[in-house]
Amino acid sequence: MLDILLHDGDIHEIRMARAPVNALDIALVRALRDAIAEAPSNGARGIVLSGAQGMFSAGVDVPALLQRDRAGVGEFWDEFFGLCGAIAASRVPTVAAITGHSPAGGAVVSLFCDYRVMAHGPYKIGLNEVQVGLSVPEPIQFAMRRVVGAYRAERLLVAGAMVDAEQAHAIGLVDELATVEQVVTRAVNWLADLLKLPPKAMLRTRAIARADLVAVWGDTTNLLDPGFIDDFFGDETQGVLQALVARLKSK
């Protein structure tokens, strides 16, 4: 489910390895959260979060989520918010090595990293939740606004837009593009350069710069509006999600 690779000893790559598309079910979400939280204690001074070449993560595992009852759906989203909070509050810098497509939950996770390197070419990224019948909760909208600005975030989120890598780079949704084979290398190199700086000064400045993010996401207990769960079980959302699963099964 996860592969842990070491680069120069103190940069830990956490690679999602849940075939075929790194869909985020509750087990993968928990494994990611634990790995990110434990990495500094295991000697990591920086973390690279990566996926398979061509697919960073296809987002939430919708078929699995639809099998859960109300309590189970609430549990999943609490765990997902906990993962995002763990990245936001990580005491070491984290880079998203976006190795391919990154819709919905995959894009959300990347928002909480310090830096994003994406594969250029025929790959897309975006929070397309509206297209699949889900609203975007305010705490996630906040994270998106923080990266691309308020107006751009509104346009992307309300439309559920997916953008290609070049456009994502142009609007600041990702920081750097590389060939799909070099995404992880560029992520490691960026971290290595950062870690050459005087550590106390760098980490203190980083903490100040990310204080707004941590203020919202440092404690994810009760962060999710219960109305989001109500909407999930509403006729509109259930109809769109069931149709999506039917299309996936027919492929």
UniProtKB/TrEMBL annotation:
InterPro entries: ClpP/crotonase-like_dom_sf, Enoyl-CoA_hyd/isom_CS, Enoyl-CoA_hydra/iso. PROSITE patterns: ENOYL_COA_HYDRATASE (PS00166). Pfam families: ECH_1 (PF00378). CDD domains: crotonase-like. Belongs to the enoyl-CoA hydratase/isomerase family. This is Enoyl-CoA hydratase/carnithine racemase.
